[in-house]
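Our preliminary data section would be incomplete without showing what the modeling component actually yields. Below, a chain of 644 amino acids is followed by its predicted structure, encoded as tokens that our downstream tools consume directly.
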Amino acid sequence: MDFFQHQERARRKTGLLVLYFILAVIAIVVCVNLAVLLTLFWGDFQSVSPSQWFSHPFIHWITGLTLAVMVFGCLLKLWQLRKGGQGLAEMLGARHITMDSTATREKQLINVVEEMSIASGIPAPQLYVLDKETAINAFVAGFRPSETVLVVTQGTLNELNRDELQGVIAHEFSHIFNADMRLNLRLLAVLAGILALGKVGEYLIRGQRRSSFSRSSSNRKGGGGLVFAGLALMVIGYVGLFFGRLIKAAISRQRELLADASAVQFTRNPAGLGGALIKIRNGNGSHLATPHAEDMSHMCFGETLHFRLRNLLGTHPPLDERLSAIGSDWVARARSRARDTGSGPASPATSGPAAPQGAAAFAGGSTVPEGAKSPEAPTPSSAPSQRVGTVSEPDMGYARSLLEAIPEDLRRQIRSHQSAESVLYALILSTSTSDTESLLDALNVSDQRQALVTLSETIRALGSRLRLPLIDLALPVLKPLPADNRARILSHLTALIEVDNRYTFFEWALVGLAHQQLGEQSGKNRRTRFRRYGALAAELQLLFSVLTWASGAENEEARTLFQRSTHGLLPAGRTLLPLTHCGSHKLGHAVDRLADLSPLLKGPVIDAAADLVLADGKVQVQEAELLRTIAALLECPLPPLFAS
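Predicted structure:
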């Protein structure tokens, strides 16, 4: 199953989630009506027989009120999560980790995330830490791959070495690839509605206790009825909790095994993930102290709380099962380490057990259940659409080489807001053919002119292959800025490019990525609006025309290439547009609409784009930048090594 199939499956599971929710609502409404009927009998408020209840007008009010409470609970949670992953992190009280952090453990996390980000083609997530949580756990949240938040516990930073931390981060990145994040956020809202009645019951009981001493004896019977109603609602709340856990277990368990398998595939180091799971098993565990632990149980790397009926209601497979899925001897290793350490917490400096490296280490001993096993990483010569949402060992190695090629001083500087902003401007200065003074005049930054010139010369000397990695490092630093500051940066980028009234492909890529991650629509949910190519025929025609001209083909050769590469995607009569009809703003608008295409339809679009860009059989840096940017803007992360 590839990236696009995972995306489509997640979209369809949203419908399954709605079905589960409807069934839970029906069950809860029946329970509430039964509780009200019993309350009326017990409190002697009104004599209504069970046979009369279903035709009594009161049932409509009770049912309507019950539905209103549940819908209100859903809407309230949706409002709290309107910012996506950032809203969830704020709700949990997580602390934002700035990219220029000097704390040793936080710097290690930043380095691992940057490496994984460049290797996968996903913008680096915003990082948060739960300072008061000593257990090992983590989760990702967001509406789309380009707008993701990664939250780790302080225990994760303190207890895990670099390989183990990389295994956990790779597990979380696979949830991004598999479109689990948006489903998880929707599941949070649904469960909030299901549990809302239990909260109302708790409120009634607390209110009854506060007024119990001031109530006259003549009112105590009625007060007792309220207590009974409160208790009944609390019981119904636990019924809702049961349904909620059942729904989460039905959706989450196989996804966790798949994420484990993908993490080993990405890192080719079973010892990393295995070591992290062993430290959870033998150490402080993964349970969270936050009151939101129940809400978060389906999102985290490990179980967030202990409860009975684990085999039925657990959101994660047992740790021994997860270890067995990595390799047949990992459970024995875990038990051996537990004996050696007396079941105490493992030392942060202790590496995971030695394990064979390479693909055979996972493929040979894997017992991942059917439907959860991740396929071997595609070779670099695979079709680009098959490489979307994957990370291979060469990708990781290439990402490390790119990061090592960036001077340490520049990497350190780029992690501050001002320097990251300057890097974006310097990237344009280093590639533009316009007069430098005219470009600096457009920025209107007299006090930074010489610094920008020096920075642009440094970037130019690094070569073209580091341009996209520099963008990947700079944009996440600027995401936390206020909206006004981000709008100012986008305005300055546009002003720089329009000095010569023309866009190069790199300039278009830079501005497009900046708008995606810093624009006013960044962080907001996007929905699938188009489920057939015909609805976006004009946009596809424009995109493919631009890419045809970018390939260097001319005249009849260009028209032949266009028809061959776009066969089956465009309706009859859609031909190659003249270059004069392919403006940069039109292209940006077209790609933005194509991002709302159904997931299964995006793969052929990326393959057709690759055919056009790589028509001459060579992969130039500019062509690679263009193809990866288009894939990123379509929310389809493409690793750097997508063609041989």
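The chain has a mean pLDDT of 80. The beta strands are 95-97, 126-130, 138-144, 147-153. Preliminary results of this kind motivate Aim 1 of the renewal.
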